Amino acid sequence: MQKIVHLLGSAGIAMSSCLPITTLAAEGAPETASYQVINQEHTVTGVVLDETGQPVIGATIVSKSNPKLMGTTDVNGQFSMKVASDNDVLVFTYIGYQKKEVPLKGKRVLSVEMKEDTKTLNDVVVTAFGATQKKETVVGSIQQVKPEGLRVPGSNISNAFAGRLAGVIATQSSGMPGSNGSNFYIRGISTISGATNPLIVMDGMEISQDDLNHLDPDVIESFSILKDASATAMYGTRGANGVLIITTKSGADLEKPKLTFRVEGNVTVPTSKPKFVKGAEFMQLYNEAVKNEGTGSTLYTDEQIANTRNHVNPYVFPDVDWYKEIFRNTAFNQKANMNIRGGTKKIVYFMNLNLSHETGMLKNRSRDFFSFNNNINYTRLAFQNNIDFNMSKSSKIALHLYAGLDNMHGPMTGNTDISSTMNSIYSQVIAANPVLFPIMYEDLSNDGWLHWGFKQIGNGGSSNPLAQLVNGYQDTFASTITANLNFDQKLDFITKGLAFHAMASFKNWSKSSNYRGMNYNRYTMQGYTRNSDGSYTYTTVPVGDPQQPVLSNSGSNAGDRRYYGQAYFDYNRAFGNHTVSGMLLWNINQYESNRYGNDLTNLLGSLPSRKMGFAARATYDYLHRYLVEFNAGYNGSEQFAKGHRWGFFPSIGLGYVMSEENYWKPLQNVISNFKLRGTYGLVGNDQYGYERFIYQQVITLTGNGSFTTGIPGNKVSYSGPGWTRLGNNDVSWEVGHKLDLGFDIQLFNALSITFDWFRERRSNIFQQKLSIPNYLGTANTKIYGNLAEVVNHGVDLAVSYNKAINKDLAIQFQGTLTYNNNKITVYDEAPGTREAMKYKGKNVKTAWGYISNGLFIDDADVTNGPVSTLGNITIAPGDIKYVDQPDAEGKYDGKITSDDQVPLGVTEPRLIYGFGPSVSYKKWDFSFFFQGRGNVALILRDIQPFGTSTHRGVLQFVADDRWSPDNQDPNAAFPRLTETFNNNNTASSSYWLRNGRFLKLKNAEIGYSFKNIRVYANGTNLLTFSPFKLWDPEMGGGNYTSKYPTQLTVNVGCQITIN
């Protein structure tokens, strides 16, 4: 943020250098009749830096004994000025920093560090395309965040967004190393088919969410969120969903380089762990399920149950806790960071090196049988090198280079990435039966193979998750390289305040994966006998022919590249009470992806994607009181047919700083700042999530197409060539019509409040046309158009408080609240759709299902209730009872069919908030932060145990609160057990609906600072308060045992600064 302030200050340097030095003295400064030390005047030079080593540009230095002697710092933070004597005192001041007095004591060269003034810290913000603007003149909705506020334990920066960034909806649903970042939106979702992720720009270059997650906060200079049309319209087609702008640090002209080291180590534990019933209880519950359903399947005998409970023989009567066999309770991770900043008047540099290492929650069971480790082992090395070269006082060139190397090692259960593999392992664990077979049988045949346990059940069988886990591994290596070349040229020789800027960028990402695995031999128990001494003897047979465990090897590759260029003129100048600024920009963007395959999606996806655009911006303010801003983007996209490829997206913003009025002066001590603002504009989106080049037709000529005509109940189909997709030459942009009204207020020079009400109407949303009747013969043809519309509205609020109680004690507080809700207002519905099932009027993230009326109590209740057509088995007491919904004429058919589904709830949070204080006392600092969410539904799925072909395990919370013949509770949390998956009970319904709200102690930290060392300890996901108790509600619905759980992290670290 300071860099932004510094750059604005450079304009003041140019103006002040044209004035006589005497005119720069403070107005009303006392004049001295004569100076006794006049002969002792001499020159002092030096550099002024902030706390991070960044040069403070445009700082004013005044001699305390003779205010006529003064100077200012240049673009490198350097100054040279006359002083009255060796004993003079220099006073350093600059907006955004605390005033500092420095006694000379005979020194001729100074290095001065200025500290931030939290009262004026946010005086400058970064806007579109990296331009800077005084916050007091901004009319758009922009939030600037200090980089240190984004530092949380772990490796992903996006996990700090929720509750800290007003307007940002963020959810972390996984804790897997390398993939534990949050999914986030700015002000919710406004489309049903297009891209919803915001545009992320770092140093002018578009980057992905993965790139952002891997970014270390130590390299960030400024972080801005652009939310409304005034802030994002210049990005045109890319700015519809908001923009994140990140600026990395630059070097500084220092007397000697400044080095900063940071090392951290943390331990993680799952926020929740599944607990399964033990073997004997599983057998009893299985018997109950067979009796409930009346399938006549063989029951476990009392002898089998007792022998399992008593662990008589682990091979004949196994009792395997598969979760404990595969997963451990803790993981240990490390992180180290080093950066160096320095330079000269001509060249300044900033270099950062970051190394992180994370491990997963798998036990290293492969070492028990083989020589490799199949636990997750993720290592990342990142290097940032920013070099700025001042070719002259008006010309500068900068080269920013970044390299990130990722090495992910982990298990393999197929040629899928590790994230998919881990989800598969968790799914296999819940599907594994604890008593069906042991992990491994003894080698009774002395054939030398490992005899992994298995048992056939009907046409299927429960897999042995440990056998699959330990017999393979994969290594994935990924690299990201970016290069930014910038050129800045002041054009003051044409007119003051005019400048030219150009940038060329390149980004390359590549990934290669090796999959190595072995065949493994499965054995099943053929039978057993009880010996006279009470012991048991058993025999096994192989499942299929035994295979030589030969190591196989396969691989895959992926990659993409992005080229970007831009050039623009900007102008910033004040004429008395009038200030004007402007920008005129051109840019071009090309993206290429490595896609393989002859199918249409891969074929078209492998072609380069190009965009071009122009952008303009003009601002005017009078007395910093009346503000006007105009922005526009004119963008072209090859997604559309000729005549529809270019779109114009303008916006206008107005602001009124009421606190600048003369009549406000009596209130200044109470309300030091009050600004009203409003913006309206258009933004575009061409990322509609379907195939490319929708204006072109796709025809299948291979004979695999089909032609269908007729009416429902009397359709006729023919095979042969056919239209797979009908082209639409009129398809064009999604257009967002954004309105934002807000105010900024500061009370008592300490409490700041920013409030925004926003509304967006997203029109021309891309949708497949559903209302075409079948008799036209297009039932098997995709027809797309700009058919739908969504309205999204809400509020976001940011509150901050900064107060220095005394020289030893300072208090800060921050809080945010974001609420948004959307509604589909136009949708092309299929013919005959019931009103309750129509998308129009519903939230984009609506979950659908049946309304539950509890559980059937008895046979009479089943007889008198509506007839369910959902079940594949006979409905009985303990099954879920559903409400029969009326048809379009208000009639009830007495049946439960798919037509009885209604909206159940919204699965994306509509309310996000966060709050927390930070306190510093002498050398101690302490902070904590709470984050919460509300208005979100969770729908449970895939929790039912058993199954005729799998005999899945039973979660303990299902066993504890189920309907049973001994507990005929119609309000039980889980229905009766059945051997077969009961489709009636597994259907999505309000029975499985849960409230997903929570309040978390998201972070807490305590630290102690020495002269150049700070040691600290912090943690994340420390406490959760929620009505939902089964697992971390932030992970969402479904069945959490099929996901890698979020992690509670405790971290310790040390930072050392050397300069």
UniProtKB/TrEMBL annotation:
Keywords: Cell outer membrane, Membrane, Receptor, Signal, Transmembrane, Transmembrane beta strand, Transport
Cellular component, GO annotation: cell outer membrane
Matches recorded under SUPFAM superfamilies: Carboxypeptidase regulatory domain-like, Porins
InterPro entries, sorted: CarboxyPept-like_regulatory, Plug_dom, Plug_dom_sf, TonB-dep_OMP_SusC/RagA, TonB-dep_OMP_SusC/RagA_CS, TonB-dep_rcpt-like
Signal sequence annotation: 1-25
Main location: membrane
Topology of this chain in the membrane: Multi-pass membrane protein
Cellular location(s): Cell outer membrane
One Pfam family from the record: CarbopepD_reg_2
Domain (TonB-dependent receptor plug) ranges: 135-243
Family as reported in the entry's similarity comment: Belongs to the TonB-dependent receptor family.
Name used for this protein in its record: TonB-dependent receptor plug
Organism, scientific name: Hallella multisaccharivorax DSM 17128
